[in-house]
Design a protein that fits this description.
single chain, alpha/beta, Nucleotidyltransferase, domain 5, 2 domains, six-stranded mixed β-sheet, five-stranded mixed β-sheet, 11 strands, about 20% strand
């Protein structure tokens, strides 16, 4: 069965088209477009018309790719920027009118559950996981061993680039996480999202992005620290030319790394694993599991 899913994120829109057979998911196509729907949101509280237009044009392109792939079903999910915007209903109506498809504006908690599903089935580490989905507008954390821990934090690379919090302000937002860190002591910390995947690509100087080398990669906290300080002290024009870093992400990557580093310090974690599987795969697994006769292959987390 062939499915597709779209994530309308604060920084970018992403699409995957995948085949699911015998409880195995094989990504056939993966696309990303930096649309910055969250640009200016911190100051105005609204999605700007130019940002909405960029996003809808991208989604129309994605729909053409989906139509060409002849998928059985697909879903579009919007996350932090859209759910927080005061004019979200205007944006949803624009999508209905021009895309003829409902956009699902999902809560931070729902985003975390779907992301965890994608990570759990994609990595199959066989150990308790603490999943950190560091996005453009928020960071979702989920841990399900010995009781469910779930939170959505107002920490994201694009948001931080606009608000420019210092380390002490970030740590204040991580106070609850720090208090709970003992329950995560035995869990493998897994990061997903553009900051984490870009960090791997930069570390290995990837001129051509290779997802097979990124997914499952283990990195140290020192890798984050070194990349953060190196890129912070690299002028933006030069940063855009760094091997492995998308030029469109050059202005926000240092803020993502700052959040990542502070989160690892708050959790007292010295290393982590990178997952390419995330919300997009979680959406596809949910579609697949809802088909008649399908049974979830892994233990479910309450929605």
């Amino acid at each position: 069965m062939r499915y597709a899913s779209i994530d309308i994120g604060t920084n970018s829109c992403r699409l995957i088209i995948a085949e699911v057979e015998d409880d195995r998911l094989q990504v056939m196509e993966r696309h990303i477009n930096t649309t910055r729907i969250g640009a200016g949101l911190a100051a105005s509280g609204e999605i700007s018309r130019p940002a909405a237009e960029r996003t809808i044009i991208c989604l129309q392109h994605f729909q053409r790719l989906i139509e060409r792939a002849e998928v059985e079903d697909y879903r579009m999910a919007a996350t932090s920027a859209v759910r927080e915007a005061s004019n979200r209903f205007w944006f949803e109506e624009q999508c209905r009118r021009r895309l003829h498809k409902e956009v699902e504006v999902i809560s931070g908690e729902r985003e975390a559950v779907l992301t965890y599903k994608g990570v759990q089935r994609g990595l199959k580490l066989g150990r308790p996981l603490l999943v950190a989905d560091l996005g453009g507008g928020s960071t979702e954390l989920i841990h399900s061993n010995g009781g469910l821990f779930l939170c959505s934090l107002p920490l994201g690379a694009v948001r931080a680039a606009e608000e420019k919090p210092d380390d002490s302000q970030i740590m204040e937002l991580l106070a609850e996480v720090k208090e709970e860190r003992r329950r995560f002591a035995d869990a493998v910390l897994v990061f997903c999202g553009g900051t984490a995947t870009s960090l791997v690509a930069v570390k290995y100087g990837m001129r051509h992005y290779d997802s097979s080398l990124v997914h499952g990669q283990r990195l140290e906290r020192e890798d984050v620290r070194q990349a953060y300080h190196t890129l912070l002290n690299t002028p933006l024009p030069e940063r855009r030319g760094v091997a492995g870093l998308q030029p469109e992400r050059a202005d926000v990557i240092v803020y993502g790394l700052q959040i990542m580093l502070n989160l690892m310090l708050a959790l007292d974690k010295k290393w982590f694993v990178v997952s390419e599987s995330d919300l997009l795969e979680g959406l596809i697994w949910e579609m697949y599991e809802k088909k008649p006769g399908k049974q979830p292959a892994v233990r479910q987390i309450p929605s």
